[in-house]
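User: Could you check the structure of this?
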Amino acid sequence: MSLKIRMGQMTTMMMTTMKTMTMRVVTTMMMLRRNSLEKKMGVMTMMKMMILKLMVKKEVTTTMMTTKMVMMMTMRTTKVMRTTKTRTMMKMTKTSHLPRRRNDLLIHGFTSASPCC
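Assistant: Sure, the predicted structure tokens are below.
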């Protein structure tokens, strides 16, 4: 129950703070939650692509938020290959144009988020 509530709070927070591009990502995620696992896995890769696109546009702050969302979603819903997923996500966030300090923050966010699932 608490998980559902937490997710709801997150989305409302998103709604108030995010841009339209990011909103599309969030809504897709909400749809994901209702779908089957296989579909979810398929759409997860699509999500990663969307986030990469955001990164290319250098919308760093929004990307940080959504990537964290994706991490939490993948961890809570699938719980399969958790460590490898975290590793690939970290690799994905280490893009050259991101400032060093921000990047550290991002990775720290992931590490603190991982035990909560």
